[in-house]
Amino acid sequence: MNESFRGLIIKKEDGSEKVNYNNDDFPSYIHAGWVEPYCSWINIPHYHEDLEFITVTRGEMGYNINGEKIILHQGDTLMVNSQQIHFSFTTVNERCNYNLAILHPSLLCSSFVVQKERIEPITKNPNLPYLHFKSQHHLAEKLFVQSQNLLDAMDNEFNITFEFFRLFKILMYYCRDNDLFAAPTTYVSNDTNFKNMLKFIHTRYPEQITLDDIARAGNVSKTYCNMLFKKYTGSSPMDNLNRYRTERVAYYLTSTDLRMSEIAEKTGFSGASYMSETFKKFYGVAPRNYVLPKQ
Predict the structure, then answer these.
(1) Contact 214, 206 (CB under 8 A)
(2) Strand partners of residue 133
(3) Sign of torsion, CA 194 215 283 267?
(4) pTM, 2 dp
(5) What is the CA radius of gyration of the chain?
């Protein structure tokens, strides 16, 4: 794991998230974390091939998945499926604690038959963007235990794989028993245009870009561009651009000795004053006073 990137969203060339795995040679990120207002690791829309599991151990938080908001309470477990556009957000002015496991489906693919007949009917099911098990659900306690088991196994790759199989078995039987492998028509798959615009923001943010530029990257009109960002993130394209720029500001503030003017130039702001004003909007403090919260 690269500790410098803890809590930050790092992008691949295709715009998807480069997950900060615990071991660079083994695709899993397991972590007991927390979230509260002004954290640098919230409100940044992203997607990845990995499955994301989050179990709330204390408090309340939210997830936005493909534009749908889900509120998680203590004891809830959420599975975000592969390639879904998502981000976490706070719902109250208090810290929320959670167990997080981001695991690549390849860990389960011991054979072609297993991959095609057991794994991909879930991970490549466009009708299954997520599964939300509320604390009252009969499987909630099992899923809570599995989140703890994964935490306990985080330093042993064999045990992680074993616990991931146990976790996926619970989901697989749940999907089978509830006929979730059928093909409902209510869900529309992720919009490629939006992903292209998201990639443009996350790779070109240091430049002076406009709404026209973002819309052009998705080959859509400015009106449709605004509509897609509103659908998937709840805010405007330019707001998303500035939010991502300030996230990069937070990175430079906590990992370099650059001057404010240098950080502003590296993150696409026209000057240190405007950078400070925008940063305070998202993080509640001026850049000079920002310190990465301790867990």
Answers:
(1) no
(2) 77
(3) positive
(4) 0.83
(5) 19
